[in-house]
Amino acid sequence: MPQRPPPSDPLPTLLDYHPPTEPDLVVIHEDNDILIFDKPSGLLSVPGRHPSLWDSIRHRARKRWPTAEMVHRLDKDTSGLILMALNKPAHAKLGMQFEKRSTRKSYVARVDGVLTDDEGLVDLPLMTDWDNKPRQRVDFENGREARTQWSVIDREEIATRLRLVPLTGRTHQLRVHMKAIGHVILGDAFYAEGNALAAADRLQLHAEELGFVHPTTGEDCTFVVKAPF
């Protein structure tokens, strides 16, 4: 019987942190209340606990906008739209929208293999894989509800481009759900192996569309930034 692998320590990987530096920030929108950036793959949303992990979207933003605060986050290796608030009232109103799931978010991903169906729903509960933290895993007994809608954008020879809509907001939800249905996201250093890992030099996951109600004007806003892959 094979031995259980020892718990993995993510710290050595995180300490090898070399986020992209050019451009420093890609500003998609700015007004008196909010900021929207196109976060590159490889850059943290907020600083990590270790001193070497100081560089992040929040750190860079606060050099120009000292009051900027995160409303939500993206994984380090996920690129795309990320929203910040410039004052407490805006932060509170936007935070409530994310809490109530009234925002609209969709992602583009390239996954390993060719899906035959055109769309589907992944409904699999997730929890932290404590032996391999920060990885997550499907757990029907102890996991929290997690649901992801997917639809095919394009089929390639050995991969599929998908639109992913998270109906819940669990850690690594899209990445674990795609792996669970047998179509891991290409270039995923946490969940892909072999050819699926080697197929891309970055995680092929991008937050392409973000919609919400502006906290001051009440306007319904939608922002779109196409995936760079």
TrEMBL record:
GO MF entries: 23S rRNA pseudouridine(746) synthase activity; RNA binding; tRNA pseudouridine(32) synthase activity
Top-level enzyme category: isomerase
EC number: 5.4.99.28, 5.4.99.29
Reactions catalysed according to its record: uridine(746) in 23S rRNA = pseudouridine(746) in 23S rRNA; uridine(32) in tRNA = pseudouridine(32) in tRNA
Boundaries of every Pseudouridine synthase RsuA/RluA-like domain copy: 33-179
Keywords: Isomerase, rRNA processing, tRNA processing
One GO BP annotation of this record: enzyme-directed rRNA pseudouridine synthesis
Pfam annotation, one family: PseudoU_synth_2
The protein, known as: Dual-specificity RNA pseudouridine synthase RluA
Organism: Devosia pacifica
